[in-house]
Specification:
By secondary structure, the chain is of the alpha+beta class. The protein has helices at residues 5-12, 51-58, 92-102; strands at 17-22, 28-33, 36-38, 41-47, 61-67, 74-87, 114-128. It is globular and about 45 Å long.
Length: 137
């Protein structure tokens, strides 16, 4: 699906995403992840042996929650599914994502089992609430 420009803008900035996958018993597991966007698909990198990747191999359905780092009242909620696990042993995708968040290449350089997880967005809901984030000091 083509991403709405507001959704694309939020995903393109260095905002943290919370990825929810399903455990074997159906219970949810949520993990913060760095994300990228390629061709209207969301991408993240991980190791093949990570719990999130193992969960997604078994059941490709997932959800993502992303809030703006500077304005937590701007958010997007995504439901989607994994359409590809791509070898990233050369860190092409992970370095791109790492530069977005840190300005540097990804520091852990063990290429064994590195994958990029490609997500097809099935539903995206953007919300911008009219609040100012001003917690008491």
């Amino acid at each position: 699906m083509a991403l709405d420009p507001k959704v694309l803008a939020l995903l393109s900035r260095p905002n943290f995403a919370h990825l929810s996958t399903l455990m074997p018993d159906g219970s949810p597991n949520t993990t913060p992840v760095w994300i990228g966007v390629r061709d209207n698909r969301v991408v993240f990198g991980s190791g093949e042996s990570s719990l999130k990747v193992r969960n997604l191999h078994r059941d490709p359905r997932l959800s993502l929650s992303v809030i703006d780092f500077h304005d937590p009242y701007e958010e997007v909620q995504i439901r989607g599914r994994v359409v590809e696990f791509r070898d990233d042993s050369k860190f092409e995708i992970m370095d791109e994502i790492s530069r977005k968040y840190t300005g540097k290449e990804f520091p852990w350089r063990d290429p064994a089992g590195r994958v990029a997880v490609i997500i097809e967005v099935e539903k995206a809901r953007f919300t911008k609430l009219p609040f100012e984030h001003t917690p008491p000091a």
